[in-house]
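Reopening this ticket.

The earlier resolution said the output was attached, but the attachment link was broken on my side. Pasting everything inline this time so it's all in one place.
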Amino acid sequence: MGAAHFDLRARLATGEPFLFSWLSIPSAGLAAQVARLPFDGACLDMQHGMIGFSDAVPMVAAINAMGKPAIIRALWNDPAIPGQALDAGAVAVISPMINSRAEAEALVRAAKYPPIGGRSWGGYTALQASGLTPGEYLREANRMTMVFAMIETVQALDAVAEIAATPGLDGLFVGPSDLSIALSRGAGIDKTGTQTLAAMEKVVAAARANNLVAGAFGGGAEVIKAYLGLGFTFIAAAVDVDLLHTGAAALMKSLKGV
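Inline output:
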């Protein structure tokens, strides 16, 4: 099953929570194993993880082979990156540090084919994974793929209404760690603090006003519950390294007294 066969847009349109894993370790074998876990999809972190593009291609293929959608959090807000990520077979791209309407428009141009954007043709891996002819893929790609603008600075929060109104944008994705650092002027990370949650409510409202998907990085049960309560539905639920830590801790705790 290829990336194009998983209709992420239709799945997110149901409004049901979509909880996905977050991968930082460059390993196609690990990606295949995580894709077998009870998450709705898997995201490769190419910004803060250790995953390079040559690592990402087989990892995306491994995730797609399990029938799960592969998502990529891009290295940076760079116009060359979204198309490359989609060419590799990812079904969605999350772009960091989108701070203005102009930057959101540039993101859409990079991720969408004409007439919406200006994505360059040549996604051989995505085309093969889709099972479609080139003409079919060209007609369907803008619908089949999605692009999310990260909201993680005070500047982005101030401009969130204008960013959300960008034609062709599919969703907003909050980076709560960076957002809370920015809001506290570097005092600390507080993903469920009063100020952070109030800011995130503003993001949800902007997304709803423009029929966009509201997403966020969760990373733990209590955080996820708080964000679901605000109206977020597209949430990064667990990081691979954290899953290793919690699994090991649970095992050792169960062996105490043996």
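Reporter confirms the inline version is readable. The chain has a mean pLDDT of 95. The radius of gyration is 18 Å.
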